[in-house]
Amino acid sequence: MEKQSKSGLTPFHIAVPVRDIAEAREFYGGILGCSEGRSAEHWVDFNLFGHQFVCHLNPNLGKDGQLESHYNGVDGHGVPVPHYGVILEMPVWEALAARLKEKGVRFVIEPYIRFAGQVGEQATLFLMDPTGNALEFKAFADIDGQLFAR
Fold first, then answer.
1. Does some domain include residue 84?
2. Less Cβ around it within 10 Å: N or C end of the chain?
């Protein structure tokens, strides 16, 4: 997956805990379609739309191996916190949402348009990886003009 924004942003690096490296490979590689970079026994790099997303094995995640999220109300939905994500061009977001639906992914928040008709109108969707890391993918009709609009 390549960098999507035309704004020239520098790629980010983020590392998250996972309960199982093979399970992370299936989710991030198989479901999200991220290509794999370097890896070792206890971690693996993924190219998440041009950003370095690293899954580190954490065997101390508790009895069920699930992270717990707090939920904040936004636009009538419970948004999981913390969450990580990427802002995409609208056609790329639409293709991702369609692919995730085809794969039968269970969404925390189904793909929809948030803040319709307002400043900051955006397409968004939320899902969890198998460990419970919350991910958001969003898109704006005009990223450069709308991303930080007030």
1. yes
2. C
* Residue whose entry in the numeric block shows the structure tokens 């690293």: 54
Count of structural domains, the chain: 1
What is the amino acid identity at position 32? L
- Tell me the β-bridge partners of 74: 77
Q: What is the percentage of the chain residues whose pLDDT exceeds 90?
A: 71
Residue bearing tokens 């919350």: 134
Model pLDDT for residues 15-66, shown as the tens digit of each residue: 999 999 999 999 999 999 999 999 999 999 999 999 999 999 998 876 577 8
Q: Provide the domain limits for residue 44.
A: 13-58+71-146
pTM for this structure? 0.87
> Structure tokens of 46?
């993924």
Cα atoms in the Cβ-side hemisphere of radius 13 Å centred on 66: 7
d(CA 44, CA 50): 15
On whether residue 66 sits in a domain, the answer given is: no
Does some domain include residue 64? no
Identify the bridge partners of residue 80 per DSSP, sorted by sequence position.
Answer: 71
CATH code at position 19: 3.10.180.10
Q: Which of 129, 127, 98, 124 is nearest to 17 (CA)?
A: 129
